[in-house]
Amino acid sequence: MLRSLDIRDMLIIDRLSLEFGAGLNVLTGETGAGKSILLDSLGFVLGWRGRAELVRQGAAQGEVTAAFDLPRDHAAREVLDRHGLGAEDDELLLRRINTPDGRKTAWVNGTRVSGEVLRALSDTLLELHGQHDDRGLLDVNGHRALLDAFAGADPSAVRRAWSGLAAARRALREAEAQRDAARAEEDFLRHAVDELERLDPKPREEEELDTRRRVMQGAERIREDVARALQAIGPQGAEGQMMDATRWLDGAAEGAGETLNDALEALNRAMIELGEAQAGVESCLDALTFDPSELEAAEERLFAIRALARKHGVFADDLPALAIELRGRLDLLDASEGGLARLAQAEKAAAAEYDAAAAELSDLRRAAATRLDAAMQAELAPLRMERATFKTKVANAAAGPDGADTVAFEVATNPGAPSGPLDKIASGGELSRFLLALKVCLTGGDRSRTLIFDEIDRGVGGATADAVGRRLKALADGGQVLVVTHSPQVAALGAHHWRVEKKVANDATLSTVTPVAATDRIDEIARMLAGDSITDAARGAARALLDAAA
User: Fold this and answer.
1) Which residue has the higher pLDDT, 155 or 86?
2) Which residue, among 428, 443, 429, 430, has the nearest Cα to 389 in the 3D structure?
3) Is the pLDDT of residue 427 over 60?
């Protein structure tokens, strides 16, 4: 419930503090006195988008503060908790300032917040209804949610089923896309996998082949020299000559005495060293011996590996991993049909679950539509619209997260006349009564939000205005309703009454709001009946209205 509203330097209001109460609160005053400014200011502190220029001329800033009573079970507490603004007491204080350059700053219980937080709170705190209220009952986009609230229906099961169906469809589409993409390159995959598996490259094989190739190429160049060296020191070379020298010296040693002994010993040592050299050269020659076809085979495999790496745009060492990847894609293609069948079955099951949930919700809506139509007819009769009809039209629609229905409230004001949207068929006064009756039916036992009706009684008078006022009073029972009215019948039924006036002082126009005391209500209602010249007859009529309201 809105407990108080404090306005500073907004439009033509300099200082204004209002204390509201439970039940029906009425605001009266001449046209243009500033009643709409109160609504603009209230909308400003609640984060609604409205006028751009709100700061009073010459003021440094405008400021609005609104205090709400907040019971423990109020829906606003969930919004507060979601934004880390949990309230421990039973008061919610909203404050917002506006500077002439358009900058806005807001606080909730002393904590700075964004306009989005204010708007989220406003949805739980207050509703504004009027003849031009395209955000509320006249907005056909919101009719389905209003019918669901009236029906007590919870669309969450349908939303969960829709989410599951969307996920199943997405998984199937992705699998089909992968399958189609794989099929488009199936020939390439099979050729590439066959080529890789036939070559069967191993990790680091390119490096090993390159090393062997270089060794063999080097051996080919030096082997001839090593073979010539072996021939030079072998039996046909130095070894044979040294053996001949030894034989000749042995034959001459008997005649030379001991003079050749040292030479023979040195020659024997040289023969031993020469034998060791020969063995080393032979070992080297054996190591340099290879089959030329081996070099050719190594080169062919090395070049094949490098060519395949270039073909696939990878390093040679990555070819084994590429073979595994391509084989996996090919296996996926071969196994995709079975996987697609399972995904298709999952989608079918999800669709069946959604269809069942949507059908159940649709049945609830159609049953509730019948009840709402009956309730509306009962409400329209006291409002002098017994010949009008109200129809909640529930039609099939494309499936979505909120079911497979569209909902629209349609009316006809005369028997036999075609029905149509509320704001297209009804005149101003008729529209006001339709909206009021609809709000009475839709509100039910929910009195948690403050309801504001902006001149919803425009265009009606007499007994009809009295009926409108009594419906507003009934709607305010156990809750709070604020109504801006020009109807004395409605004003007389208010539990709390304020008069809005516009005054000019010191060349400045200011709007004031003053509570109308019980003793002054006769004159205010008489003014509404007779204008500025209040007659005794007008006072008598006003007194009669107040007595009837009591």
Assistant:
1) 155
2) 430
3) yes
- 467 pLDDT more than 90: no
- Residues 532-536: contacts with CB within 8 Å, 24+ apart? none
Instruction: Give the Cβ contact number of residue 304 at 10 Å.
Output: 15
**pLDDT digit string (tens) for 353-381?**
999 999 999 999 999 999 999 999 998 88
Buried b (16+ CB within 10 A) or exposed e, 532-545: eebeeebbebbeeb
DSSP state of 318: G
Report pLDDT for 303.
92
Torsions phi, psi for 354 (to 5 deg): -65, -45
- Angle in degrees, 0-180, between the axes of helices 319-380 and 156-184, rounded to the nearest 10: 150
Q: How far apart are CA 110 and CA 92, in angstroms?
A: 10
Which two structure tokens, joined as six digits, stand for 435?
Answer: 């909206």
Task: Quick: pLDDT tens for 140-184.
Answer: 888 998 899 889 888 999 999 999 999 999 999 998 888 787 777
Mean pLDDT of the region 84-110:
87
Q: Which residues of 114-131 are buried (b: 16+ CB within 10 A; e: fewer)?
A: ebebbebbbebbbbbbbb
Cβ distance 24 to 491 under 8 Å? no
Residue from 129, 148, 125, 131 nearest 440 by CA: 129
Q: Output DSSP code: residue 61.
A: -
Record the tokens describing residue 189, joined without a space. Answer: 């995959």
Q: Are 524 and 488 in contact (CB under 8 A)?
A: no
What integer is the mean pLDDT of 228-232?
78
Question: Do the Cβ atoms of 452 and 367 come closer than 8 Å?
Answer: no
Cα angle 127, 128, 132 (rounded to 5 degrees) comes to: 145
3 state DSSP class of 457: coil
- Kindly state the tokens that stand for 421: 């949207």
pLDDT at 290: 67
Sheet holding 420-421, edge to edge: 389-400, 403-412, 420-421
405 bridge partner residues: 396
Tokens of 311: 């073909």
Alpha helix segments (H runs only) across 185-312: 186-199, 205-233, 238-256, 261-287, 292-312
